[in-house]
Amino acid sequence: MAQSIPAKSPGAEIICHDPATGEEIGRAPLVMPEEVARAVGRARAAQPAWAALGFGERGRVVMDARNLILKELEEIAFLISMETGKPVAEAISLELTPVLDLMQFFARKTAKLLGPRRISVGQYWTMGRTSYEIYKPIGVIGIISPWNFPLATPLGEVVMALMAGNTAVLKPSELTPLTGLKIKEVLARAGLPDGVLEVVTGDGSTGAALVGAGVDKIMFTGSVATGRRVAEAAAKYLIPVVLELGGKDPMVVLDDAHISNAARGAVWGAFANCGQSCSSVERCYVHESIAEQFIAEVVKETKRLHQAAGTEKDTDIGSMSSERQLRIVERHVNQAIDHGAVALTGGERLRDMAGPFFPPTVMTGVNHEMDVMREETFGPVLPIMTFKNDNEAVRLANDSQFGLTASVWTRNIARGQELARQIDAGTVMVNEVLYTHGIAQTPWGGMKQSGLGRTHGRAGLLELVRSQHIHVNRVSFLPDLWWFNYTEDAGQLFRGFARRFASGSILQSIPLLPQMIRRWRAPRD
Fold first, then answer.
1. Which residues in 253-284 are b (16+ Cβ under 10 Å) and which e?
2. Assuming Cys at both sites, which of 28, 68, 140, 482 could form a disulfide with 177, CB separation 3.0 to 4.6 Å?
3. Which of 16, 274, 278, 284 is flagged as catalytic?
């Protein structure tokens, strides 16, 4: 992860370093609050013309940008690796591939996903009434993105916002500003009009300025603590928010699971991106009857991993994002060991490597009193506990303030789906782990402290539009039966409406026809 040294005066820069080597890799401006406000103003001015282009024209720009990314795949992957410390191969598999799929999906399908939707109005159709729902852009979307997926997360949200007819102002993490600037560059070269996407690089004060600069919605991805502050700041201006926050995602391995495959899934789910994903496996529960064999397989697979700088060939695990994040991992691991846990692999930082390298660490002897089982570790740590039966497994999985993703591993798919429905998480996978953020067609978001709202899928698109209901009376020459005057006959008809029409049954409503006709024909005084 690019380390930054921000200053606070106009013209100041963020100096970015490769976390694995400490070498400077580039600089980005530290944008002042007044420039953030001007960026939002430019985005607002550009929005009506962008929305007027329609889905086809907007989709062509997105697809042209996609083609540019494909041509520069290796260069962009290397940039991500230098900024984050993750392996180049992982930048391609976990960032570039999913966002390229997302781009083609929304470029081609947004028109259908946001097309007018007919609404059933029950028996009112017998009176010539119809209703439908249309969707309009919100306006200017403020996007505050994280450092752990500096391309996939913000670019996916930018594409969805733009395809829905909005303009966007992106504030990338101060730790990965260069990838954020690359997003703007690629879209500009693809023909995106000026002002449709603004990128403001900076620190927390830049993000705070974005919330206060008059955007129409905030999309935030990050920690629970920061997300709470964003929500509080947005509430002052009645700005709606989508918050994708932390996770402490459980993996439940049942007694009939395919042990070796589940073990490989656990290792990848826990250690991909050096464990720095909100959907990483941060808690593993295995049935006591297979625990010994499963843990042995996990340890064997973990010891096969090659850790080095992400830019080196054949690296499985790179460096962590920063010293700050490494210290959180150290605190969780040390506290667990002090209270009786055992590290079967790893357990302490690699001091013979210059950057913030922490080895993949498998732990047993843990319990729910330890921070490593309760707080988001966000590092390469896999703590494993056992359980006796399905009910206990569900109870342990739900014993958390978080609820982003979870997984259940079993050969019995029906059993797995039944347990999945009992787990409190926005996404629960059966015999899968981690990667569902990469499926653009499905909704992404959490329960409990893991956030509010959704991204991806139709649910994510609906976060980026305003719904408008259009209601039509096709029988324009007849007055409504419930209009004035409230005569005695009208009162009787209204009582019939309550008893019969409101039943939803046409058969029950038919006896009301004579009264309805008399009311329509009744003379006006």
1. bbbebebeebbbbbbbbbbbbbbbbbbbbbbb
2. 28
3. 278
Query: In this structure, what token pair is assigned to residue 268?
Result: 């990848």
Question: Which residue type does 483 have?
Answer: W
Q: Which two tokens stand for residue 402?
A: 């978080």
- Catalytic residue list contains 312: no
Domain boundaries, the chain: 24-245+458-467, 249-441, 479-521
- The answer regarding whether domain 249-441 maps to CATH 3.40.309.10 reads yes
**Rounded alpha-carbon distances, angstroms, from residue 187 to 216, 221, 388, 496:** 22, 22, 53, 61
In three-state secondary structure terms, 129 is strand
User: What DSSP state is assigned to residue 522?
Assistant: P
What H or E segment, with its residue span, contains residue 97? helix 97-113
Helices (H), 169-255: 177-189, 204-211, 224-236
CATH topology of domain 24-245+458-467: Aldehyde Dehydrogenase; Chain A, domain 1 (3.40.605)
Which residue, among 275, 10, 75, has the nearest Cα to 83 in the 3D structure?
Answer: 75
Q: Which two tokens stand for residue 299?
A: 């340890």
Beta carbons within 10 angstroms of residue 484's beta carbon: 7
* H/E run at residue 103: helix 97-113
3-class DSSP assignment, residue 231: helix
Asked if the peptide bond before residue 391 counts as cis, ω within 30 degrees of 0, the response is no
Confidence (pLDDT) at 11 = 74
Cβ-proximal residues to 273 (8 Å cutoff; 6+ apart), any chain: 86, 90, 94, 148, 149, 280
Closest CA to 360 of 296, 284, 271, 433: 271
Contact of 342 with 365, CB cutoff 8 Å: yes
Nearest to 95 by CA among 34, 179, 36, 184: 179
- The whole-angstrom separation of Cα 195 and Cα 156 is 18
Q: Could you identify the residue written with the tokens 């390229």?
A: 100
Query: What tokens were used for 458?
Result: 């139709």
Q: Which of 90, 157, 244, 282 is catalytic?
A: 244
Coil, helix or strand for 247? coil
Residues of the chain with pLDDT under 70: 1-10
pLDDT at position 5 is 39
> What is the predicted pLDDT for the residue at 10?
61
DSSP annotation of 275 reads G
> Is there a catalytic annotation at residue 274?
no
Q: Yes or no: say if 45 and 194 are a contact pair by the CB < 8 Å rule.
A: no
Three-state SS for 408-469 is EECCCHHHHHHHHHHCCCCEEEECCCCHHHHCCCCCECCEECCEECCECHHHHHHCCEEEEE
Tens-digit pLDDT profile for residues 306-365: 999 999 999 999 999 899 999 999 999 999 999 999 999 999 999 999 899 999 999 999
Residue 401 near residue 245 (C-beta atoms within 8 A)? no
Which pLDDT belongs to residue 75?
98
